[in-house]
Fold this sequence. Notes:
The protein is α/β, with parallel strands linked by helices and 450 residues long. The protein has helices at 29-32, 45-51, 68-82, 93-96, 105-120, 136-140, 147-164, 177-186, 197-221, 243-264, 280-283, 286-292, 338-350, 377-395, 438-449, and strands at 22-26, 86-90, 124-130, 170-175, 226-231, 236-238, 298-302, 307-311, 318-320, 356-360, 400-406, 425-428, 433-436.
Amino acid sequence: xxxxxxxxxxxxxxxxxxxxxxxxxxxxxxxxxxxxxxxxxxxxxxxxxxxxxxxxxxxxxxxxxxxxxxxxxxxxxxxxxxxxxxxxxxxxxxxxxxxxxxxxxxxxxxxxxxxxxxxxxxxxxxxxxxxxxxxxxxxxxxxxxxxxxxxxxxxxxxxxxxxxxxxxxxxxxxxxxxxxxxxxxxxxxxxxxxxxxxxxxxxxxxxxxxxxxxxxxxxxxxxxxxxxxxxxxxxxxxxxxxxxxxxxxxxxxxxxxxxxxxxxxxxxxxxxxxxxxxxxxxxxxxxxxxxxxxxxxxxxxxxxxxxxxxxxxxxxxxxxxxxxxxxxxxxxxxxxxxxxxxxxxxxxxxxxxxxxxxxxxxxxxxxxxxxxxxxxxxxxxxxxxxxxxxxxxxxxxxxxxxxxxxxxxxxxxxxxxxxxxxxxxxxxxxxxxxxxxxxxxxxxxxxxxx
Length: 450
Ligand code: IFM
């Protein structure tokens, strides 16, 4: 019997306990699907990146991952059995469009079955269009900075909206565009592994332009769809009270938050992000901001940790500091639930939205299976304290309408390969057996037995 009560810090009268609050689990295509060369799927930038020596910690790839492409019916049964009412998944662009930009029927059929499988089980789909698997041939022609690629993204968005718009209500364009720009083109950690801050900013803007173009088209096709975007904003704390560290923390937070939320609200990002010979007003022209700031219905927030920042003599002007004597998860990220409450309040104060979702929140822990069971006490406490933080933000007036745990199951954790397990369900990658961990059972106790 599970001892940790996951909802212990949610108040008795919270709307998180009402039937309208959405409880879901989240995944993404490249991290779980496998079947990387089946049924006409094209290579993505992640397939190419994984082939480069030294890019992925354990030398692995998402080629097989959780084989969800073949096991999706069982995975949907699992979601249902745990009591979740929604499933956030992403479509692999390279699976549904062929090299000439025409629909790939076999790929489209896979998502059709997946969506129908959700609906048959009473699970609400939340669909993400781009969770980092850009078709590799589109990166070869300049990727997101090329306006043709932005237009192709909006064609792809229109294609899937035409196909699934009658069955899917919630649509997000990008997942964490900071990762597909700054982490990928400035820090060089994600595909395609470049280290040029100027390019990162141009890519970031390109992602926002593609978002605006896609929203415009999807809205025309289906005015009743709920359209949004998923951001990974942060609260950045200065390491010391020095003016230098305060300024550095301001730059870091602006890069993660303002760079996205300002343009989405029709405003150029702040000057603290300017680079020599590149100001934010050069980058974001008024007509760009008009396109990017299409009205949207919700924003998803992915939250894992906070950042502690100090001044540094590099092009960014900051460096992240790992402070000692704090609780960390297996991946090394500080456990800081208060940050989620603070973040939600700050976001609603600066960039108000009618609806926020927590589209990802979770922890990697050092999980082992003993007699078919996995006791993940740290993850259960993590969920408990973060749910309490969401509840407090809601009671102070932030309209959070749902919460998605990251992740349904262990999966390919990008540059960390399979060395980090974020699932509430354990995956034995040799046998593809799934084992609900203590946290999954704690959610189940709460969701099915209240
Ligand atoms: O696994 C990722 C996910 O793809 C995006 N958000 C953060 C998660 C944990 O790193």
